[in-house]
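Re: duplicated header lines in exported structure tokens

Our pipeline writes sequence and tokens for each protein into one text file. With two proteins the header for the second block appears twice in some exports. Here is an export where it did not happen, for reference. First protein block:
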Amino acid sequence: MRRSIPLALPKHSRVALTATLLLSSTSCIYLGPSVPVHVPSKTLDLSGNERELDFTFLKSAQTTRGEVEKNLAPIDTRSMEPRLFWGRWESSTHASGPLIAPYPPFSGRDWDPQNILITLDPNDVVQGWKVLKDKDLLRELDQIAPTIHHLDLSAPKRLNVELPSQGGGRPSADLVLSASAVEYQAPAMTFRINRSDLGKITSAPEGIYKEEAFHHEPDPSHIWITLHFARRTPLGKSLTCGVNPPEFLMLRHYLRETPGSGTPSEIKPGGVKADGGEKEQ
């Protein structure tokens, strides 16, 4: 007589398989609230490649810009600020999924954008550095004196921005900055808003999501922001978008130089400010 041999599966795989069978036998089932699960850490550079980052070579008053750019080339945002190096990456140490089946295919990694701001003296030698999450980035940039003092608008500046998406492509639009107005250009609509009607910039969650689960795609090459307007537009009174770091700094300069504008960015309170070389929590 032939004997059947039970298939040995890891515990989490058996849970996921059971949930899959349940889902296949009913059209709708609640698997419980989302819960975090620890997973092996991963770090993605600006190109989306896995990378191990090492900042131990940084020494105040010793390390040169050349050494910084060589060692941190994979995360260099090329911010074009003469006395600032801005590095950016995404890290993940957790996944989240429903309580009954918090493993693939029902779960997905949670990614967290990270930044390092390295300030340099007039001789291109490191003064200090901070590692920050996006929620603290704008406030920290506001405390760094700009080294580009005038934005040349003799010709309009065109910024290509990504728009929020929940699957099915990555829509984008153009923001055309001129001396008097900003023009929003997208396939669905085009409109202009007076420069004087631009408000503050606030940080926003990353806005590109996968189709199969509500987890944002890691996108270290863009910083997600909300640009607020003083008057209602066809988009409402704000625009949430993803901007690459050099164009983000250009937009901040544009707002900073707008007559009558206040602080160009605002972040909700949170996090503990760190001294040079320490990481913010």
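Second protein block, exported in the same file:
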Amino acid sequence: MRNPRKTPQAEHLTWMKENGYSIADMDNFWKENYDTNLLVKNLTDNGYSWRDMNISVVQKLPTQKERDIEYFAKKAEEEEAKRLAELSEQEKKQYYEEHFEEIMCQKIDTKMSLTEEELHRLLEYELYEEREYGDDGRWSRGVASVIELCGRHFMLYWQKGLTEMQEDSFYDQPYEVEKVQYEKTIIVKEWWEKGRKEEASDYVFVHTSEN
């Protein structure tokens, strides 16, 4: 460790005189900053004092401790605010998971768009899915799923990937539906051998149905 400088620099003495500070005052300011200012601590431990500093550093010594205390207090406050904010986010996530069905119903009722992640999660509440009419695409198949949330039912149309590389995709928002039961007449067409009137069960035929 070096030997500390014993006498202040000339510009130090000029500034001290102008501001009414003695050498003892400056020694006290330096000592007071030892516990609050890491730079002062390191300099002191290595044999330096305020006498070795340039004038700009010396001029800050009388109020440096207050500024450091204020800085650390503000930093601690910011860290606490951040901790509380992170805790709040965790609580929000927990509430979201615990009330997922209610939140989804509320978003649908208020015409808020569900995110793609939320639409995908709705399939966990699927009662059944029905293939849409038409041929499969090269990469996907149109599917209509009935979703049950909070005892209510919603229709969701989506595209089901047909390959391992093709992900499911969602282009439409769900809407509420209800089950309706009614009688429906179906016209059936069968191809029989011309001129034969026996029961169709005696022959091979092609069967098509139309709604």
